[in-house]
Design a protein that fits this description.
The protein is mostly helical. The protein has one domain: Tetracycline Repressor, domain 2. Helix content is about 75%, strand content about 0%. It has a two-stranded parallel ribbon. It is elongated, with a radius of gyration of 19 Å.
Length: about 190
C-alpha cells in the first residue's frame, strides 16, 4: 500500500514540475530553478529527487510531449487529434513555433515522426515510390507546421473543422489521390 501512495506522489510531483516548466517555457527558456519551485509550489528537495537539473526536466517535458504526439500519429497522422494536443498547450506551442522557445522539442519531435513514417512505409518495396512518398510527407508536414504556427499566432481563431477544411483545400485531399501519394499517411477527417 505504501508503494502505491509513493508512486502516486511521484507521478503527481513530476506532473506538477512538468506543468510549471511548460508554463515558464511559454515565456522564456531562461527561468531559474527558484522560479520553477515557486510556480510549482514544490521544494528544492522534491525537484532534485526527480531531476538532476533544469535540462533534465526539460528533456523529460519534451519526452512526455512527444509521447502525447506520437500516440496521435502512429500508423496515420491524425490531424484533428494532433490539433487537439497542440491546443491544450496553445500558449506553449506558440512560444515553441513562433518565438523559438525549447528548440530541441521540434528537432526531437520531427525525428520521432519520421521514425513513425518510416515504419508506416516499411512494406513499400518500390524504392522510387518510397522516396516519392517520403518527399511528399516532408512537404505536407512542413505545410502543417507552418499553418499551425499561423493558427497559434492568430490565437487559434479557426475551429478544428475550419482548419481541417483549410488543410484539405491546400492539399486537395481526395480519396482517390491519397492512395497514390504521401497523403495516405494522414487522416484529415473532421
Amino acid at each position: 500500500m505504501t508503494k502505491k501512495l509513493t508512486d502516486a506522489r511521484v507521478l503527481r510531483s513530476r506532473q506538477v514540475l512538468r506543468s510549471a516548466a511548460i508554463e515558464l517555457l511559454s515565456r522564456t527558456d531562461r527561468f531559474s530553478i527558484a522560479e520553477l519551485l515557486l510556480k510549482g509550489r514544490v521544494t528544492r528537495g522534491t525537484f532534485y529527487r526527480h531531476y538532476n537539473n533544469k535540462a533534465d526536466l526539460i528533456n523529460d517535458v519534451n519526452r512526455e510531449l512527444i509521447r502525447q504526439f506520437t500516440e496521435k500519429t502512429e500508423g496515420k497522422f491524425r490531424v484533428r487529434e494532433v490539433l487537439e494536443v497542440i491546443s491544450e498547450q496553445g500558449i506553449f506551442y506558440n512560444a515553441v513555433l513562433n518565438n523559438g522557445q525549447d528548440k530541441s522539442l521540434m528537432v526531437d519531435l520531427m525525428a520521432a515522426l519520421r521514425e513513425q513514417r518510416d515504419r508506416a512505409l516499411a512494406d513499400v518495396s518500390d524504392e522510387k515510390l518510397k522516396k516519392h512518398l517520403i518527399y511528399q510527407w516532408e512537404i505536407i508536414v512542413a505545410g502543417f507546421w507552418a499553418c499551425v504556427s499561423l493558427w497559434l499566432q492568430d490565437s487559434m481563431a479557426l475551429t478544428y473543422d475550419e482548419i481541417l477544411e483549410e488543410f484539405r483545400e491546400i492539399w486537395r485531399v481526395t480519396m482517390t489521390r491519397t492512395k497514390k501519394t504521401g497523403l495516405l499517411l494522414f487522416d484529415f477527417d473532421v
